[in-house]
Write a structure and sequence with these properties.
about 475 residues, Immunoglobulin-like, Neutral Protease, domain 2, 3 domains, five-stranded mixed sheet, 21 strands, elongated
Length: about 475
């Protein structure tokens, strides 16, 4: 009957070539531990293609999918039935499988072709022979994930190749073995295959795992590590040596153009992709702010698109301050950046407040203006005893990172408890929910900041000069 099954269904009952046995562990037995429900065994093979075997230990609810743009690169999907590998049928960019209780699936994914064809930072892109794509791009998964369940991912990158992932390493210590919640496969963080140069960069008592794609990069590995070490050290110092993200993956590649670009993803663990501009050299890295900006994102909870003005505003405001406090920037450079940038964040005609106005200026510089006002107001009301630092450090102590979603109410509540003050809530009502504005000229006058030539000069007799000095002052140690 087995032979008849194979003949009638035109399927393969045996492997078409030599493959290694899948190394798939059993579900966790401890009742308190998350159930291991999905298992993936992935090999990078010739031509930048992935050979994937998966086992789903629970009933599959809904069809199997990948990121919608990546569907075209999924090939030869098969599922196991009565010892036979049966071809699955694609319909509407998905594969529906008749698996009532559990299922084994195998397929190929054309990763290199996806990276070259899609060329999108959050989906798939290539840097020389390094292929960068979140697992949600190349792991077929059910549309509904079981509650409180995890997946395991075992990868064989091949001779001379490396694999890195933002997922946490599995407790068994096997190389390239990872775990994550099943729910993150709807929006997973970064992973990469290829001839990567990987180093562990200390950041306080945490680590930034730096993976360098060397093609076209105008930095040696040592110079790239120094750049990341400076930026990560500044952010770790801001958090008093204890980053909420105990481990962050940072992928560094050449990006071309005149501007360095960064993007942070959080699903399954925070990871940062930095695409260095053509102008980045060992001399200019000290002035390049992108890594510090993105590491601030990695160490702060995800607030969702509606509140992206606060996420981006915090990173825009705090990045130069954190770098100045460790001596990477001068106080004048910090305030010159705010002098030049903050006018971009003021409301224009038709503005509906930070929550509902999606322009670049309002998101980045409007958010930074909100943060400056919060910092100044907290300091002024408390005699410089409380500041925005107290809010960020209190959130950091919860361990929340970009992997965690927080509603705005939680941020405002933590801020109120950390400072014994409703300042952030008051500013939220005035500047976020309504198109409130700020008299920047009067504010800079009170701080004792004015432009002169290509920089700023300070008036230390101004009413808030002492507060201005305390914001960006270099910290000892």
């Amino acid at each position: 009957m087995l032979a008849a099954c194979c003949a009638v269904l035109a399927v393969s009952c045996a492997s078409s070539g030599p493959t290694r046995a899948p190394q798939l562990s059993r579900p966790a037995e401890a009742s308190s531990a998350p159930e291991l429900a999905w298992h993936y065994d992935v090999r990078l093979v010739a031509g930048g293609e992935l050979a994937v075997e998966a086992r789903f230990d629970t009933a599959i609810e809904g069809p199997l999918t990948v990121d919608g743009d990546a569907t075209a690169f999924v090939k030869d999907v098969q599922f196991q039935r009565a010892g036979c590998w049966v071809a699955a049928t694609e319909q509407d960019n998905a594969w529906q499988l008749p698996c009532a209780a559990s299922c084994r699936v195998r397929y190929r994914f054309q990763l290199r072709q996806a990276c070259l064809g899609l060329n999108e930072a959050d989906t798939a892109l290539a840097s020389g022979d390094v292929l960068i794509a979140p697992p949600s791009t190349w792991l077929l998964h059910p549309g509904t994930s079981p509650k409180h369940a995890e997946l395991e991912l075992q990868v064989e990158p091949g001779p001379g190749q490396r694999f890195v992932s933002a997922f946490r390493r599995a407790p068994d210590g096997r190389p390239d073995h990872y775990r994550a919640a099943t729910a993150v496969l709807d929006d997973a963080s970064y992973a990469a295959f290829g001839p990567l140069d990987v180093a562990q960069v200390p950041a306080g008592d945490g680590t930034v795992e730096l993976a360098i794609a060397p093609a076209g990069l105008a930095l040696s590995s040592e110079q790239a590590r120094a750049w990341v070490m400076d930026s990560a050290g500044a952010i770790a110092s801001y958090y008093q040596g204890h980053l909420p993200a105990r481990r962050t993956l940072l992928l560094l590649m050449h990006g071309g153009g005149e501007n360095t670009r960064g993007l942070t993803l959080g699903g399954g663990g925070p990871a940062v992709l930095v695409r260095a501009s053509d102008l980045v050299t060992p001399v200019t890295t000290r002035d390049d702010w992108v890594i510090a900006h993105e590491l601030l994102h990695a160490n702060f909870p995800d607030l969702g698109r509606e509140h992206s003005w606060l996420s981006e505003g915090l990173a825009t405001y705090l990045e130069p301050i954190a770098r100045a406090r460790v001596g990477l920037l001068s106080e004048a450079e910090v305030w010159r950046g705010l002098w030049e940038g903050l006018p971009e964040g003021l409301p224009e005609a038709g503005d509906q407040g930070l929550e509902r106005t999606r322009t670049w200026g309002r998101t980045y510089w409007g958010g930074a203006l909100f943060c400056l006002m919060a910092d100044l107001t907290l300091r002024e009301r408390s005699g410089n005893q409380h500041s925005l630092d107290d809010v960020i450090l209190a959130i950091g102590k919860t361990g929340a990172t970009d992997e965690d979603f927080w509603p705005m109410e939680r941020v405002l509540s933590v801020a109120e408890r950390a400072t014994n003050s409703p300042v952030l809530r008051e500013l939220y009502e005035r500047l976020a929910e309504r198109p409130g504005t700020v008299d920047l000229s009067a504010l800079f006058a009170r701080l004792g900041v004015r432009a002169q030539g290509g920089t700023v000069v300070f008036d230390d007799s101004a009413p808030l000069a002492h507060i201005r000095r305390s914001i960006a002052a270099r910290r000892p140690g």
